[in-house]
Structures
1.
Amino acid sequence: MTTNESTPHHLLFIDDETELRTLTAERLRECGFEVSEADSGEAALELLDQFAFDILITDLRLPGIDGAAVVEAAVARYPSIVALVITGYGTVKDAVDAIKRGASDFIAKPFQFDELMHHLQRALEQSRLSAENAYLRSQLEERHQFSGIIGRSRPMQALFQMLDTVARSSSTILVTGETGTGKEVVARAIHHNSPRRSHRFVALNCSAIPETLLEAELFGHVRGAFTGAAGTRQGRFEQAHQGTLLLDEVGTMSVGLQMKVLRALQEREFERVGDNRTIKVDVRVIAATNSDLLGMVADGTFREDLYYRLNVIPLALPPLRERRDDIPILVTHFLEKFTPGGTVRVAQSAMRVLMAYQWPGNVRQLENAIERAVALGGGREEIDVADLPPELLTEQPTSPTASADLPEAGLDLPAHLASIERDLVYRALDRTGGNRNRAADLLCIKRTTLVEKLRRIGAPS
Ligand SMILES: Nc1ncnc2c1ncn2[C@@H]1O[C@H](COP(=O)(O)OP(=O)(O)OP(=O)(O)O)[C@@H](O)[C@H]1O
Ligand SMILES: [Mg+2]
């Protein structure tokens, strides 16, 4: 029998009986092991200091330092070393002690060489399996999450691989996906895995800031640049110097401002509002959107050149309904988030509902549903179907047909759309008893977007 590894195992054989030791060592060498010999515990420790060993075989009874102590010292130094002990008459109890101290197995004296080899091969096989298991476990753990992004489905695994690579570059990234699919978590994960991680991650939601103030928000302003500009202020581009800037909901920016952003991206320079001094920055830009930017390019509301400047690396996040196998681990993740240290489970019937639902609001909607269920559960150990938001239980609404009559005299489209929007926002709030989180879920928008719409509509807050 020989070892079939390309590099031979380095083996330390310790026994004070010279003849037994030299004979056994010789036969081990014939089997392909690289063997060092020691005739005492002290000599063994000295060798362990100088060389790395994969295998250690030692007699238990040695003059001076005994075999069990050698095993313990070897395991402390090389945790994956395979250690076997040889026991003489009456030392079986000591063998048990040696195993406690890290030996894999023991062989009773006198032994046949084949017997020794049998024990050795078995111990090596076990060690190989446990190393493999540890490796697989670490692989598995890695695949189910990437810097706080949870996912085990195929599309998410592909995304994790992609993130690993793109994080290392400074290329501009365009993250697309429906609301709540995790565009912002992905942008943060990219920053935290990039060489820029020790600098700032600055996020700006372009839709949350009135158009008139957005330019100053992006590029900064000097005192008196516009009414209300009391002092000089840095913009987000400057704040993100050497770091990462997330331009969230980039599709909502006016065409005029798109032009200025394009220049900042191309030249990495800009001026603060009201100033003519040019400022240079080193910023990695990640843009995110849930609008159809290409469609907007086609109808002229988004600049084509900016689109291509942003879309250097496209990352499209799949909606949750297209990766339902992520639902159970996301549920576990959110249960842990909302009941830290708790033992709340989801009943099978409730899990079936969660798995079947369409999730128009994606992961955010799922997160809200679990938070609500935990609150309604009031400390109960199991979440029931009754704890889930009612919209999960009703038939999926099909998308209402987008058709309306066009009056002979035409209509004011923006005003008309605004009135439909106002109507739907109020209906959603009515249906959810004024709960803004759930109303936003019903409309597949973020809570902050809903609040912004309410503010625009002039609703009392
Ligand atoms: N894969 C995921 N793992 C864990 N949490 C997630 C995941 N995806 C999203 N979330 C959580 O869901 C919520 C929404 O995520 P995020 O804000 O990144 O979505 P978004 O795509 O930016 O949505 P929007 O288009 O509405 O801005 C956050 O609380 C986030 O932590
Ligand atoms: Mg977002």
Note: Residues 149-151, 177, 179-185, 290, 333, 363-364, 367, 446 surround adenosine-5'-triphosphate (ligand 1) (CB under 6 Å).
2.
Amino acid sequence: MTKNIVIAGAGPTGLWLAAELRLAGAEVTVLEQRTERDPHSKALTIHPRTIEVLASRGVEQPLLAEGIPIPQGHFAVLDDRLDFALLDTDFPITLALLQARTEELLEDHARDRGADIRRGHRVTGLTEHPGEVRVTVDGPDGGYTIAAAYVVGCDGTRSTVRAAAGIDFPGTSASVYGWLGDVVLTDPPSAGSYSRATADGLLLAVPLPGGLHRLVGHSPDDIRADRPGELTLDELRAKVTAIAGRDFGMHSPAWLSRFSNASRQATRYRRGRVLLAGDAAHMHMPAGGVGLNVGLQDAMNLGWKLGAVVRGEAPDDLLDTYHDERHPVGAELLEHTQAQTALMTAFSPDGRRLRSLLSTLIAEQPAFAKTLAERLSGLSVRYAGAHPLTGTRAPNLKFGDTTLFRLLHAGRPVLLDFRDEPGPAAPGAIVHHGRPLDDRPDWAALDTALIRPDGHVAEVTPSGEPDQHR
Ligand SMILES: Cc1cc2nc3c(=O)[nH]c(=O)nc-3n(C[C@H](O)[C@H](O)[C@H](O)COP(=O)(O)OP(=O)(O)OC[C@H]3O[C@@H](n4cnc5c(N)ncnc54)[C@H](O)[C@@H]3O)c2cc1C
């Protein structure tokens, strides 16, 4: 039986999954229909939990070196921003980096780890057989079939894998279209990013590398079920001028596009030997800039599990926990992007009052602002568990000689043994003895904590309770 894993799609999700699977010792083939990477970048933002994920494998530095750190996020482009200094993380920033560059760095990382990435190879279908799944591919030299132990559809919102596996993708169709222009501005807004919400629409302007600005927004006439025609520079100019009172001297568009609030989620993230991750599993309005982030975090959850199963070290039903853990995260993603869409299109006087009220709450109620920031940043994701720490993502605990994230670089479970007299080693885990230097009462009350390869807490032994690892 083959132990190869086939990934359809070399977007951010597929590339990170490929690297994770290689780290777990699996053979990986990534099939990507495009011969060249898309030069247009949908995503610009990388959030704190994603930077933590990268740091847990020691590959965050190239992105941190190139990205522009922004110490805040936003909810529905409300005037008062979410202060990321409130977050308990080593990376309290939104990192602005073009998706094309993020993908390039992720692809380098996956290739360095030995992933076989084939461009110009389009997945056309699949059939399941005892012990394997056969994937049909349209490649540069014609059609072929490749056998795999498992196939992961990371092939975006129109996923061929999802359709071939017969997994439903219910949700709501588009009722709002946003517009986007990457343009040169001869008279740009004075400092950093700019936003404005009026009865004529909502506009966000963000500087991009290479002298461009991204202008993105919605106007009242974009609330419609039918897709408008191609966006032109003249239309963009008219919409921006209606909202901002000027066009910022826009010219030379590098990309003009539209996007919608169609929101859908796969009913199952797993069917037999087929799994889904990233946009193939969930689609939504790009509000708050989170889709790429959630895709990478899907891949982080799935990678070590799939690796353990193909190595024969875990039963196949471990893969069911991928659906159980990540489907609720996808559902929450749809919920908060839909809520933001309602606010971003609240053009009426009453709607603008609602925006103003919520913005004031963000400014004046730190606990409210922190809750929103934790959701946006990905730090609040918690999987099931009895103890308050179980299922949470462990922060980067500091020890004298190392940190938790450094201990996670190998992609193996980490047993933190805080006792003065350490217990025996746990099979398969990296064991670290010693108390963290951090002043954290919840962690100080533990004897041991077992951390999963994806950085979430698997189990803990409170001080004085019988050791689960003996
Ligand atoms: C306007 C806009 C702005 C956004 N801004 C942000 C942001 O700031 N931050 C953020 O986190 N997210 C943002 N997003 C969302 C983000 O771009 C996506 O969530 C992200 O690209 C999903 O990655 P993915 O790898 O799952 O899917 P994709 O990026 O869609 O990649 C799928 C890949 O699969 C390939 N493929 C498709 N079908 C096949 C096939 N049959 N065979 C082989 N290959 C196939 C495609 O060519 C593609 O390369 C934005 C989206 C939009 C539209």
Note: The first strand starts at residue 4 and ends at 8.
